[in-house]
Amino acid sequence: MTLILAIESSCDETACAIVRADRTVLSNVIASQHDLHREYGGVVPEIASRAHVQRIIPVIDKALAEAGVSQDQIAAVAVGNRPGLVGSLLVGIAAAKAAAWSLGKPLIAIDHIQAHLYAGLLDTNPTDLPTEQTFPALGLVVSGGHTASFYMTDPLSCQLLGSTIDDAVGEAYDKAGAILGLPHPGGPKIDKLAQAGNDRAFDFPISRLDKASLDFSYSGLKTAVLYAVRGIPKPPAPGEKAAFQRDHQDLTDAHKADIAASFQRAAVRALILKLQRALDSIKDQPDAQNPVSLFVGGGVSANSLLRTEIEAFCDKNGLVPFIPRLEYCLDNAAMIAGLAHERLARADVDDLTITADPTPTRAVRR
Ligand code: KG4
Ligand code: ZN
Question: pTM of this prediction?
Answer without folding.
Answer: 0.94
